[in-house]
Structure formats: structure tokens, C-alpha cells
Backbone:
């Protein structure tokens, strides 16, 4: 406790790894870079040997591609593979792909099962098999079982190292067992109770164990497990369970209710982060892009979304083209029409954002669905009315045409009504169909508000002014 | 373990509280509602007494306003206030405001300090003082101290109940102390070591304690605390620390380095959720809105954002108005111009989404900033070129005018370039100015892409075709 700042970690040579904002410190980074440039392996080891895997991960992300490669080459067999689990998926894959399979096998050997799975799961089938073949047989069997579970399932994320005891043991026996066993998991906060067929009976938290007297039977202090997870379950569902019941860890069982692993909250924190990030990125139309992706990868991943957007923009243009002679006779319509479309787009985005989040956090259910939908429609109509007056007045004065103000006001009410309705119904519909409401909502919604906006405004104008 | 589904919890009367999707089960809900309608307090108690606070919270959120009030009136003093901590902020405030202060004081008495703070912090000053005055003096002092810390600080979120021992104690003494003390915190996974002045020296995790022999001195197994938190620190920084180092709990110290509380991962999980939710909502222009807000609250909160959007839309209209005679002579321009603006808006949103997330997770730092900016510009130019060809060809064929295709292609490259540049520079600039990049980015960015898009397309067309 020599420093006022919790994020600062002192190394033996008194160099701070992170600055006051929690980022990798410039001074430290410069020294590491100098060591790389001078190919000074000894200095590099000294600088990095005490790093937490998270600090090591951030350091690797801070390097440019060349420094990164040199850094790994210099550390060679002293590089701790656990740092790889802290990296973006795409960067991790890039690094692992560049290493010889034997080196990866050696590195993976040292890891907990859940960390090893993270490194292996994204690799090419062939490389993965080659690496698995070089692992001790027990490790290989455990890892293969984890990898056989679906992507993003509890079975993939679980740790297969845990402590399980028999129900007839006493507290004393259990404590002695833990004192004598060397090969325990690194950290744990509960022990599990299983029957002879390895079926989960319950669990005992460490604080309960500590507070109980030695002769107490485990069954007396055991909690019957209310919240456990099946290995096939999706990580998003699992994270909801953790959040809902404030769990620190949960048992994972297979289809025969046998205990096969344990999920801990630190893995779940990553999942919560991933899922929220996924929603934000999908709403923004950028897929699984990471900041470390190359230019070409990024161009490709964004192209699809822009292409979809182009189709909807062309549809909107086609609607405008229906009224080309109207516009020719009254060019003020061309000037004002983006206002109608843009207000609708914004109102729909607001509704959609709330709807997508509420669906992701299960805040919308059959009990409140009708209430939520009618609330959105009412909000849309009220804001529609307010902006109809505002925009109508502005347009009326601008073009000294009171009728034009009336027409744009009416078009705004219509478009904001459809914006509210589609902003809530499209996400609900996509969820019902089993699609992710975040991924496709914004493109559908912009289409609706553009098409309705242009059609309502230009159509009303053509009819009102008789310009067909 | 009678059920295959981990989310299903059996009550004594064999009624499932949640369905297979993890939502409150319709059958259960109907029974509760019937009990409310029949004002059958006994049945209601039986139905709800075993509920976890999270289940109780979701049940309350599922009710309509009238049922909610009746439910609380019927349960009266048997209502467990911890369920309130599971509700949306605005709904919780509404419920607490409707209850007499004496009832709230009674309810708060039973809670852990961190839960009590959540209920008290949003109340009117006057009500809060009245409630605090009715609490036991020790509780009052602790709560007041927590409430004196800034909003969203570690001091607000921390639990003031923890176990701290002296460094010269042995493992045996510590275990005996825990066995004999009744008033321990409900759950804990580490104990702290303090000096006589209450300054934090270190911590011992429960698994280490369990694995050590009774005569072992605490100092021998104590970890010097590397990661701790000051009470004034913002919860977002704290959550980064938890995530980075996979912490389960962290000590909170005051300005004199005295141990004042403990933060646990379950509170941090809520923070992570809140912060991600805040980003999503700000990007979508909906502020702190909750699904339980009333229509009027929602209209008001969304109005501001729509009004800002109106200003930018009027600016774009003004740009179009500069070229009204051009459009009059060539109405195809009015038909095509939304395509240029919309593609730019989308490309900018993509860049901005990645930038805002990367800033929130500190993935952008001084080491990679230049690399990130030039990557975005390059991506924008490449996609700009691709869509210039595509859109140019479409426009050329549609209006049988090859020159129009050239003009729209050039306008697209220009707009996508500015889209990429503003998509990355505006968030970076806002962050530099100390503003939240998420809150204002999208409005600035749409303004840029609309204005540049219309100006580039119409301006180029006016010049190329000589239509001024």
C-alpha cells in the first residue's frame, strides 16, 4: 500500500506498469520497447516476469504488429499463455496461428481447462487436433469434452477442476482433505457434494464450512442446489442466472445430472460484457469487428451492412421518384423532405433502442407487452403532435406558405406514429421469430421511416396542392 | 434437483415461479393475481414467502400499477425490502415515495448497508432525513457516511459489514472467531488484515485459510493487497479493476487508508450492466429512460433529443435550399440525394460505434490512436470507392445519364471519407474534452454526413452540369 492509486502496481524495480487512468504507462511501455529493439531478452524478462496476465494482455495489444512478433519471439518459452485469454478473439487467433503447434501445445499444458479451451476453440480443426495429440491423455480427454459442447455454451466456458466430497464426510475430514491435497484448483469459493454416481447433491460455501465445527456432517450444512446449469445451455442464459441470483459460481451438470465442471463469476463477467458489446455493435451495424482487425477485414465486414443500407436507400429514392413531377413544380418539397425522414428515423431509433435492451434483459414479457406497445404509440403520437406544430410553423414561415406547414405537420404525425409502431413491433417480431432483435432492427426501421416519411409528405403535398 | 431446468425453482406447493425461458410463469402469476383480487393475505404470503428477492422484484415489475399497490398494501410489514433493490430506479422511487416514512424505516433496518443506500440515495432529502432519524444510531452513522460519498462512487456501493483481523492472529484463532461470532456478514470470500489504526495491511482468501494449519500466523498466508479501491473512486473505474484482475471482492479505504468497507463482484456486475446500458441508450438518444417510465416522462426525455435532431435536419435542409434552382432543373438530384446522405450516415455510425466502445473499454490509447484513425480513414476510402462504382452504375442506368453516375460516385467517396474521419475524430474529441463520447456523437456525426453529403452531391452536380 505504497501508492494512493489502486490501479498503480509497483514492480520490483519501482516502475509503474499503469498510469493514473489505468492505461499502460508510457514510461513502462518505452522501456519494454527499447528492450525489444535491443533484443535484450534478460531485460525483457525482468520487465515482464511479475506482470498479471491482464497487464500482459494489454501490453501485447498496445504493440504494433512488428513489435508484437519480436516480443513473443524474444520471450519464447517464457511467455505465459494465460495472457492470450485476455486478448481480442481475432488478435489471439492471429498470434496462435503464427506460432508452431508444438509451442502452443507446451503453452496450453500449463493452463486451466477453461483458458485452454478459449485458445483452442477458434483454431483450425487440423491444428487443434495436432495440439491436442501432444497433450497428456487426461487433459486431452477433458478438453475434447469441453470442445464438443456447442459454441458459447456453459460446457465450453466451464472449468473442469473443482472439489467434490461425499455427503457422509464431516467438516473436519473435508478441511483435512483440502489441507493435504496439493493439486487443488487455484481459487474456489464453494465445494460440491456428489453421490457415488457423480450426481450433484448440493454445495457448501467456504464461509459456511469455516463457521461450522469439525464433527458436523456435510449433509447438515449443505445447500440443496437450486441454481445449476446444464452443459449445453447458452452462456447468455447462464449469465442471466448469475445476475439474477447474485451467484459467485455454479455447478455444471451433463444430461445424466453428473457434475462435470464449475462456472465462476469472472468468466460470466466477460460474458456479460460480450453480450452487451454484441448488442451495441449490432445496433451500429458492425458485426463482430474488433479494433485490432486489419483494414481488409474491417472493409469486408462493414460492406455487407452498407450494401443492405443501399438497398433500403434505393427503395426510398424510388418512392421519391414517384413524385418527381410534384417536386419539379414545388422544389421546397425537396428541401424539406429530409426533415420528415430524419425525425422519423430518430424517433424509431429511440423506441428500438429501448425495446432491444428490454428484450435482452427480459424486461418485456407477456404481462407488460401490450402496455409497452401502447405506451410507445402514445409517446410517438404526443411527440409527433409537438413537432408537427414546431416544424409546421418553421416551414410555413420559411417558404411563406401556410399550407406547406400544414402538410409537413401532418406528414410528421404520420411518420412518427409509424416510427413508434415499427420501433417496438419489429424488434418484438424478430425476437418471436428467433432472430436477434439487435442485428436487423435498425435497417428495417430506417426503411419504414424513410419510405413512410417520403410517401406521406410528398403524397400529401401532391394531393393538397393538386400537383400530380 | 428434481427438474431438468436450472431456472425452475420449486415452491413447497409445487408451483413453478419461472417458466423455461426464465420469465415469471403465467400460472404462478395468475394465482398471485387472484390472491390479490380476493384480498387473501394468507394465500399471498404462502405464495410469496419463499421467493428469492430477484424473483420478488420481477414479480413486482410484472404487475400493473394498481395490482402493484394492492400487493404491497396486502403484504404490509411482511414485505421484504431487499426486493426493491432489484427494481428499475424509477419504479423503486415511485414505490418508496408512496409508502409512509415509518414503514420505509422499518424495512430499511433489515437490510445490508449497500442495499439500504440504494433505497435511500434517490429519495428527497427531507424524507431521507426523516427515515435516517428513525434508525439505530450505528446504522445511521454508517449509512450517512456512505451517502456522503459522491453518487456512483465506490463508497456508495460498498458494504460496511466485513471481517477484519489483526496480523498477529493465527489461522486457528481466526476460524474460532468466525465460528463464535453470530453477527457476521451474510456471505464473504475473504477476510481483511488491519493494523491498530484500522489501516489495511492485506487479505486472506477463504480457500487459503481453509488450506492452512491452525498454528499458522495470518501474516504468513496474507496477500499484500495489490488491488484496492478508494471510497471516492467512480464505479466505472472500479468495475474496470474488477474485470481486469478477475476480483471477487475488493477492500474500500478512505483518504487515510483506513478500511471502511468491501465491494463485492455481484454489485460490480450490476455496474457493468448499467454502464453498457448507458452507452447503448445514449447512442440511441434515449437518456436514462426505463421501460417502466410513464408516457409523460418518456415523451419529455425523448423530446430533447428529437429537438436537437431537428436543428441538424434544418441545417441539412438549408444546404439543399442553396441548390433549389439546380434541383428544379434536374429533379433526379432530389431523387438520389438521400442515398448519398444515408450511406454516409451509416458508415459514420459504424465507425462511431466501434470508437465509442473502444473508448469505453479503454482499447484506444496513445499507443494505437494514430493507427486507429488512419485505419478508419482507409476503410472509409475503400468502401467509398466500392460503393461509388456500385451506386454510380445504378444511377447512370436508372436515369440513362452516365455523367450523373460519375457525380454521385464522386460525392459518395467524399462523404464516406468525411464519415470515417468524423466517426473517429468526434468521439475522440469529446473524450478529450471530458464529455461522454456516446451521448453527443451521433447527432454531430449525422450533421456532418448530411451536410457534407448534400453539399458534395448537389454542388458537384451544379458545377458539372452548369446548373447554377
Residues:
Amino acid at each position: 500500500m505504497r501508492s494512493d492509486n489502486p490501479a498503480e502496481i509497483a514492480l520490483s524495480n519501482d516502475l509503474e506498469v499503469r498510469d493514473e487512468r489505468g492505461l499502460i504507462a508510457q514510461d513502462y511501455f518505452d522501456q519494454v520497447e527499447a528492450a525489444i529493439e535491443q533484443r535484450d531478452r534478460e531485460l525483457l524478462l525482468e520487465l515482464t516476469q511479475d506482470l498479471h496476465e491482464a497487464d500482459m494482455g494489454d501490453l501485447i495489444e498496445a504493440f504494433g504488429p512488428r513489435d508484437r512478433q519480436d516480443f513473443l519471439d524474444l520471450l519464447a518459452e517464457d511467455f505465459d499463455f494465460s495472457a492470450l485469454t485476455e486478448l481480442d478473439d481475432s488478435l489471439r487467433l492471429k498470434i496462435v496461428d503464427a506460432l508452431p503447434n508444438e509451442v502452443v501445445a507446451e503453452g496450453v499444458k500449463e493452463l486451466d481447462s477453461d483458458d485452454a479451451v478459449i485458445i483452442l476453440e477458434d483454431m483450425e480443426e487440423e491444428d487443434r487436433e495436432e495440439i491436442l495429440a501432444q497433450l497428456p491423455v487426461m487433459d486431452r480427454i477433458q478438453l475434447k469434452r469441453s470442445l464438443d459442447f456447442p459454441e458459447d455454451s456453459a460446457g465450453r466456458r466451464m472449468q473442469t477442476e473443482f472439489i467434490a466430497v461425499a455427503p457422509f464426510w464431516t467438516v473436519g475430514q473435508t478441511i483435512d482433505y483440502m489441507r493435504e491435497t496439493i493439486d487443488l484448483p487455484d481459487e474456489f469459493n464453494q465445494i460440491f457434494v456428489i453421490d457415488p454416481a457423480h450426481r450433484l447433491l448440493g454445495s457448501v460455501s467456504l464461509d459456511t464450512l469455516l463457521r461450522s465445527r469439525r464433527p458436523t456432517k456435510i449433509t447438515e450444512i449443505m445447500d440443496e442446489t437450486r441454481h445449476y446449469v446444464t452443459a449445453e445451455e447458452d452462456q447468455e442464459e447462464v449469465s442471466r442466472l448469475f445476475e439474477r441470483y447474485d451467484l459467485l459460481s455454479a455447478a455444471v451438470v451433463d444430461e445424466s445430472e453428473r457434475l462435470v465442471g464449475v462456472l465462476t463469476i469472472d468468466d460470466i463477467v466477460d460474458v456479460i460484457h460480450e453480450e452487451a458489446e454484441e448488442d451495441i455493435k449490432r445496433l451500429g451495424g458492425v458485426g463482430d469487428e474488433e479494433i485490432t482487425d486489419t483494414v481488409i477485414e474491417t472493409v469486408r465486414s462493414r460492406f455487407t451492412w452498407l450494401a443492405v443500407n443501399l438497398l433500403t436507400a434505393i427503395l426510398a429514392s424510388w418512392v421519391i421518384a414517384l413524385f418527381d413531377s410534384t417536386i419539379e413544380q414545388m422544389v421546397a418539397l425537396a428541401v424539406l423532405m429530409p426533415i420528415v425522414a430524419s425525425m422519423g428515423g430518430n424517433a424509431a431509433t429511440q423506441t428500438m433502442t429501448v425495446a432491444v435492451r428490454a428484450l435482452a434483459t427480459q424486461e418485456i414479457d407477456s404481462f407488460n407487452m401490450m402496455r409497452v406497445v401502447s405506451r410507445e404509440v402514445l409517446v410517438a403520437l404526443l411527440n409527433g403532435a409537438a413537432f408537427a406544430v414546431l416544424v409546421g410553423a418553421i416551414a410555413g414561415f420559411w417558404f411563406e406558405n401556410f399550407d406547406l406547414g400544414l402538410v409537413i405537420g401532418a406528414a410528421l404525425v404520420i411518420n412518427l406514429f409509424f416510427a413508434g409502431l415499427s420501433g417496438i413491433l419489429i424488434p418484438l417480431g424478430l425476437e418471436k421469430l428467433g432472430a436477434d432483435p439487435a442485428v436487423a432492427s435498425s435497417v428495417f426501421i430506417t426503411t419504414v421511416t424513410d419510405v413512410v416519411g417520403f410517401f406521406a409528405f410528398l403524397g400529401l403535398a401532391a394531393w393538397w396542392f393538386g400537383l400530380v
Remarks:
- The mean pLDDT of chain A is 87.
- Chain A has three domains: 26-152, 164-265, 295-465.
